[in-house]
Amino acid sequence: MTGSSSAVAPERLLSPITAGELELPHRVWMAPLTRSRAEQPGDIPWELNAEYYAQRADPKTGAGLIISEATQVAPTGKGYAFTPGIHSDEQVAGWKKVTDAVHARGGQIALQLWHVGRISHVDLQPDGRKPVAPSAIRAAGGQTITSAESGRVAVSEPRELETDEIPGVIDQFRHGAQLAKDAGFDAVEIHGANGYLLDQFLRSGSNKREDRYGGSLENRLRFCLEVTDAVVGVWGGGRVGYRVAPLGAFNDMRDDDPMETFGALAEKLGERGLAFLHVVEAFGPTERTDESERVYAACRERFKGAGGGIYVGNGGDDAQLAEERIAEGLTDAVAFGKLFIANPDLAERMRRGGPYNAWDDSTFYGGTEKGYTDYPSLA
Questions:
Q1: What is the tens place of the pLDDT at every residue in 141-156?
Q2: Helix ranges (DSSP H) in 183-247
C-alpha cells in the first residue's frame, strides 16, 4: 500500500457534474488504459474484461465515468497485439458483456474510438500491407508489439492515404460509433491524442499533404472535424468527447504552433456541442509549466466559450492536486490512469484519504488476471 495523499476529503472532486447529456456522480474519471487482454482470435472483449471494468464501475466507490481502453474502428486501425476492436458482430457481443456488467453495478462507460494510423506494423495489417497515414513519414522511435513472442519492434513505414480513401476512413469511425451504441455504451470518446491517426492529420510535423487535408491549419483540422461530425451524427454532441495531447511528443509528434492548432480545434469542437474535451496535460505534475498552462487554458476557454461542455484534465494528478486544480478553475473533472489500475475503488479511497495500492507496471500490457483483476478493494 502507498500512503495517503491528503487527510481531507476532496469535496469538489467528489461532487456531481454534468457533461453534455451525462449526469455523473463525481469527477473522478477512469482514463482510457490499453491493457492488451482481448480474446483471440478476433480481438474480442470477454468475461475477464467485463470483470475488470465492473470492479471499477460502482458510482460511489469507483469511477464517475469509465472511458474504455482504445478500441480500433477497423482492422487497418490496429497498432498493437491483443487490443480490442469495434468493427465485428463478435466484438459487439463481447463489449455487450462489458457494458452489461458496468450497468449492473450502476456505472456509466464510454467507448474510446481509435485508429492508430502510422503507429502499426505490417504484421498487424490485413494482408501485410503498409499502415496508412496522412503522409508517408515513419514515426522515429515508434514501437509496437505484434505478438506474444515479438517483444517491442519498430513500427513500419506507412503509406500516404489517397484523398479519395479518406471518406472511407471517416465511415469506419461512423460505423464504430454505431456499433458502440449497439453494444450498450453510454457515450463515446474520439481518440485524437498521442500520435495516432487524427493527431497525425492535425499536427504540422506529421502532415505534409498538399491536398485539402494538409498545409494550412484549416486543412489540417478538416479530417478531425469530419470524423467528429460523423460520430456526432450517430450519438449527438451531448454524448461525445474528444481527447487531445497538445504538447505530447509520444510517437514522434510535434507542431509548429500548438496553442493555435489545439485552440482552434477546441473551438470547433465546442461549436459542435461536445460533452467534454479530455486533455492530456502531462505525464506527471512536475511537467506542467507556465507555457503549457497557457496552451491548456486556450483549449479550455475556446472549447467552453464556443458552447462545449466540460474540460477534463489528465496528467499524473493525485487527489489533492486534482482538488486544487478544480478549485482554481483549471479543470472540471480529472481522469486517473495508473491509480485506477491498482485501485478499483479509487473514489472511496480518495474520500477516506487513502491508503492506495501500488501498481505493478510489469503487468500493464497483456497477460492474465494478475495485475488486472486481482487488486484488492478496501471492502
A1: 999 999 999 999 999 9
A2: 197-202, 217-235
Is-cis flag, bond preceding 10, omega within 30? Answer: no
Per residue in 237-254, pLDDT (tens digit) is 999 999 999 999 999 999
pLDDT in tens, 284-309: 555 788 999 999 999 999 999 999 99
- Using alpha carbons, select from 3, 45, 11, 50 the residue that is nearest to residue 27: 11
Tell me the catalytic residues.
196
Cell numbers 461530425 label which residue? 229
CA-nearest of 222, 231, 234, 229 to 272 is: 229
Question: Do residues 174 and 188 lie in contact, with contact meaning Cβ atoms separated by under 8 Å?
Answer: no
Selection from 332, 229, 327 nearest residue 277 by Cα:
332
pLDDT in tens, 159-170: 999 999 999 999
The label of the residue with cell 492530456 reads 280
Band the pLDDT of 4: cuts 50, 70, 90.
very low
Q: Is the pTM of this model over 0.90?
A: yes
**Domains of the chain by start residue, with CATH:** 17-363 (3.20.20.70)
